[in-house]
Protein 1
Amino acid sequence: ETGVTQSPTHLIKTRGQQVTLRCSSQSGHNTVSWYQQALGQGPQFIFQYYREEENGRGNFPPRFSGLQFPNYSSELNVNALELDDSALYLCASSTEVQGPEAFFGQGTRLTVV
Amino acid sequence: AQKVTQAQTEISVVEKEDVTLDCVYETRDTTYYLFWYKQPPSGELVFLIRRNSFDEQNEISGRYSWNFQKSTSSFNFTITASQVVDSAVYFCALSEARIGGSRLTFGEGTQLTVNP
């Protein structure tokens, strides 16, 4: 148990729709990162939020956006869903006080049909 | 740009065998971190270990050991006396030292199957 929880665990959406995924970080962690993991591949960095500000972004289009709230929980929003967006979305939290390691939630499995 | 290569896509062993998972990385950063994560079928990535670039001391934790060699840019992971519960996908990852938290670059993973 990492203390990082994601909701929902599974989701099915239609191409063109919008989706919001949620992440509750481990207590005391002020950094949240989001990763996309396609089937059979390693996770790919989407973006990171540190103290409510975006702190780096991977090679993902602007239709992937996010938020971090004052309690350090976070949302990942994806607009205009495409079939290739089908993947496991992983949230990770960390704090510099405890070191650079990130602790992951169980993920949200998104299927776009 | 950073890159992590895990050349072994799948490994299958029989219980009690030793197994080594290879990881080679590329980075231009002088200070960086290396990680190993385990991903069981449930999907959650479980943190196993972190090494700092300036600390090449090998580490042993129970049946797990890690060999970090900066000269060959490798960070290999050995499981001694493997068990069925070790079956999972293992990821090696790399991050530069940065304010706010790690931005992990993962390898493609090695699927380890331990047969009884």
Protein 2
Amino acid sequence: DQQVKQNSPSLSVQEGRISILNCDYTNSMFDYFLWYKKYPAEGPTFLISISSIKDKNEDGRFTVFLNKSAKHLSLHIVPSQPGDSAVYFCAASAPRDDKIIFGKGTRLHILP
Amino acid sequence: EADIYQTPRYLVIGTGKKITLECSQTMGHDKMYWYQQDPGMELHLIHYSYGVNSTEKGDLSSESTVSRIRTEHFPLTLESARPSHTSQYLCASSDRGSWANVLTFGAGSRLTVL
């Protein structure tokens, strides 16, 4: 059973607008959440993360919001740029567990 | 700047062949991982290692094996490849001291078994 769910396989957003990528999780033990970005023919690269003691973390154009009661997190990209077109993976880990659990990813298309 | 290297990037082989996917990292990371990913699917952990002479199986059952004789090297071997092994294999590493457990990934090895 999937512990990290990204229910939107793809998303198209106009350049300059806000992109919002969503992620849900089922394991209440998860205490650290990460977003990775992946271009074709490359490995995923770390984008931004958030600890469960926070509800928001911001890094430039990227902000991650965490709603623990809903077991939901989202990644906001504003303004969206053509180089943001990629697959975005949500991932989570539990305390003292070296395994990172990934979602299926959401393919983001930034339209000109 | 790439600190984790995977070879080969692409491999097409016939059924029954033995293959080894190489993974090396120059960051001195203790922890290393192998993930398997099919298009549109999540990354599945198949093997990981805490350090030299340490290997563990991941959540997804795999017929592959790994070894960790040196800190920087974590090769994955398939003794007899089958079409069901066709997939992308991603190697990653992280620093044991990193509480965030952020992974650094290689570019991946795409394996096709005919």
